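Lab meeting, item 3. Inverse folding demo.
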């Protein structure tokens, strides 16, 4: 217990340093530091138990509060530390296989030993729920004077766009009509972008921490079959409902947009699972998946839309079960 406490405190200090680094330096470095802020907490929780992760989260929060500002500590705790501990706690949940008969579980080597682990699909949905809750929370805080918040945001985006255009193309200037259209579009999409960014950070850190602790032999659970990722059928309905809600004006529309963004990313993950499943044992697997991820990383929105639609179709028609019925189950 003493060793776990020391590990938790040490990784909490690392998390606080990474969080502080996200506020200085070039923009790309800031984003990278923000993306990796929760990684030490995930490492502590997945490698030594969720209680060690909680010690790391508490240590990082207290350190940021003492050396920085209380609001920074609150942001770290709500946006990084607490979600990391909760997701890790769920990832380490398990039960005897006989208690899980007929229910959604992870299929892994441990299943043969009579242990069922918390499903990976539910972990992704929890990440989506946490990211959505944080986005809606920000919208609720802004709702104290929502019109003023939008006005300030519009001014900030306009100034940023003018500065970028002036930097990249000094001879060109944005006319007022174009600037207004781009600014309004950015404001409308900002809740979705926020929830997608937060969820991406949570899922990425959970995956990376699992990889690191697995490579070191410290991971406290077996690695799941991610190409068998599944969600409850209600996720597709929730996504459509969130899309409809995003068309409402004001705070409800902002909340709907944020939830739709998180569920959209969840559907992208589901579509990727379908593609990985269908490419099992195929000679063209490496080339096809490499091309796909290159397209996603380059930033092609239409590639992600196509993958999300595939995930939506799998949620309705269970495509992988049809693949298995046609060719037999994978090894």
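The presenter then showed the designed sequence:
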């Amino acid at each position: 217990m003493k060793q776990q406490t020391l590990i938790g405190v040490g990784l909490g200090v690392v998390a606080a340093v990474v969080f502080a680094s996200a506020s200085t330096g070039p923009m790309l470095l800031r984003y990278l530091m923000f993306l990796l802020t929760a990684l030490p907490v995930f490492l502590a929780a997945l490698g030594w138990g969720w209680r060690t992760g909680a010690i790391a989260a508490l240590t990082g929060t207290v350190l940021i509060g003492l050396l920085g500002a209380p609001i920074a500590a609150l942001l770290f705790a709500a946006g990084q530390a607490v979600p990391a501990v909760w997701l890790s706690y769920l990832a380490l949940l398990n039960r005897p296989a006989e208690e899980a008969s007929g229910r959604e579980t992870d299929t892994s080597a441990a299943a043969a030993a009579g242990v069922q682990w918390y499903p990976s699909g539910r972990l992704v949905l929890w990440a989506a729920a946490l990211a959505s809750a944080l986005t809606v929370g920000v919208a609720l805080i802004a709702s104290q004077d929502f019109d003023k918040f939008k006005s300030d945001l519009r001014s900030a985006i306009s100034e940023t766009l003018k500065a970028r255009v002036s930097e990249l193309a000094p001879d060109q200037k944005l006319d007022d009509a174009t600037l207004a259209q781009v600014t309004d579009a950015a404001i409308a999409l900002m809740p979705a972008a926020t929830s997608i960014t937060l969820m991406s950070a949570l899922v990425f850190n959970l995956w990376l921490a699992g990889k690191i602790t697995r490579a070191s032999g410290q991971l406290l659970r077996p690695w799941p079959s991610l190409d068998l990722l599944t969600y409850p059928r209600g996720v597709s309905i929730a996504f459509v409902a969130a899309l409809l809600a995003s068309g409402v004006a004001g705070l409800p529309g902002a909340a709907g947009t944020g939830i739709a963004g998180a569920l959209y990313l969840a559907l992208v993950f589901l579509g990727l699972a379908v593609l990985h499943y269908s490419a099992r044992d195929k000679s063209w697997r490496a080339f096809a998946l490499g091309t796909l991820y290159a397209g996603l990383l380059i930033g092609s929105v239409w590639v992600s839309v196509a993958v999300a639609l595939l995930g939506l179709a799998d949620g309705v028609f269970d495509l992988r079960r049809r693949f298995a019925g046609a060719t037999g189950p994978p090894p």
